[in-house]
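Trying the structure run again after the queue cleared.
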Amino acid sequence: MDFITGFNRDQLVLMDFESCLSIDSWARIVDMFVDILPMGKLGFNDILGTEGRPPYRSADMLKLYLYGYKNKIRSSRQLEQACKVNLEVIWLLKGLRPSARKIAYFRKNNAIAFKKAFRYFVVLLKDWELIEGDTIAIDSFKIRAQNALKNNFNQKKIDRHIDYIDNKILEYQRQLNAQDKDIDTQEVHNKIVYQESKKNRYRTIEKQLQESGERQISLTDPDARSVVLHRNIINVGYNIQAGCDAKHKLFVNNDTGTVNDTHALSPMALDAKQLLGVENMNTLTDKGYTT
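Done. Tokens:
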């Protein structure tokens, strides 16, 4: 009995990409959805420059991201790799291979347009009668962010760091004033300069915090906040508010701006009401919410 063998790698293969994808492939759904989006109206602007290499179409980049969200391919480098090895992505982008830098810039520069595209999808579901808009359940859940706790600051934490640095500088100055022969004065001066540079960094963070108008600031992920994730453990993450329609349990809207559920009911309910275009609707929440 012979083993099952593959084809000869040196053999010329005529391949039809269209036939390689199943009829119900997620890539086909993404392709059709993005093609009907009013990209310019949503804020995706295709601007052709007079110099340099032509840019990628916003529609193609959006297709790549939507496919990645569905298949848990989140980072720009993973998406770049998928453009080379994933057959569905190759079909979806027609062989385009944007770099990780291009992919990351697209997400960064079109954050508002992304949100509008997701809301447009909800409106489509409403038009297709998959969302009723009669009863909306609102609740929250917490997830961790890609931001270390040491890179999250509030005024109290900044003051604590600055006080510690001031005490270290005073200690070094006392050593210099003592004129001890065993002390390397140049080394102590270098330590003072280093502590002063750290102090300037915290002053810069303090200025950013004051200009933001928020009670805390995260350096890596500006949208993340210090929250209680589980078992009373504090870490940096998101408290995500989500509204869900009762008919088919489909999400309607979401928000990541709050640290807890207090006073989140009214903004979420009004946003869902405006998005779905209904006059009246019922909302369901737990007792942790207040209007």
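The radius of gyration is 27 Å. Worth checking whether this holds up in the mutant runs.
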